[in-house]
Amino acid sequence: MSKRTGVILDVQMKRESKSFTDALYAVVTAAGLFEGPKFMLSGLSGMAFKFTVHEKLLPLSVTAYGQWGREHSPAVDNLGIFFQYDGGRTRHASFGEYQRIAIDSVKQSLDRGRACIYWIPEFGVIHGYDEDDRVFYVQDGWSGETQVVLYDNFGLNFTPFWDCNFIGEHVKIPLQDAVLESLRLALEDWETSYKTLPDLSIASGRLAYSFLIRALQQGGFDSNGAVYILESFQTSRIEISAYLREVQSVLPGLEEVQRLYAELVKGLRGPLAAAISENNSGKLLNQEQLPSLCSALKKALEMEERAMQQVSTISGQYPDLKRSTLPRWGAHTAR
């Protein structure tokens, strides 16, 4: 039997949400592991609820929501999909060996009909390879075109790290259980102020609102990053509202959470549209509209705080074995 020299999978990634969510949706729908709209995947995984802001509103804010392995594993687990990740720092002396093993793993996954999630940056999809030319075929979701990444350049980019994710088979999780866990993941994000310690320049959850509002009021921020953060934030809250509308009958009290997010989305629509304009150079913020935008963001913070208080009440009505059961050997002992 001759060895395969390549494969190209029919996978179509489209940038609409967070880049990891877009890549994950493309991979799992192509593999037949998830059915439904993207907002359902974004909500069930808890990815829609992640909100992080750099103090200077740098574009990296949108993907700097924590250590990716710790953030992505619970998200994909809650979809009932087997998930593995690999990554690290390209400056490490061991990178060459990790790169070689990861290249083989990607090809094996593609041979099984599973595309891979890959940090380009941001996250994209590896959907094929050619062994003769020693290249991977990659989509970034912004255009319908496929990019080429040489095996020798796998993992190398302008950031100091690399990341690649693999999916496996699927098990069925009862919808009520998945929805409840998505709310608990959302609550963890909301109540965790810093996900990238010891770095205190990036805030998460409710504190991210304060970082965003303060930067807009004080000035000196990255204009492109500000637009990207605001548009990503609006998209994610629209996703949350749509998700909760779909599942609000699953848990008592969820209707109120959905109502609050729907009100949040409605209240932001006008101020955001007025604050962001577009010219030949791209999108930019209208400075004279920033006071109104900050006022709308403060109201959004109040709405989301009330929503999370209701989420906490709902969560407290059900046992949470994941967070209340101490492992046999304790939480921090060596294994």
UniProtKB/TrEMBL annotation:
It comes from the Bacteria. This is Uncharacterized protein. The lineage of its organism: Bacteria, Bacillati, Bacillota, Bacilli, Bacillales.
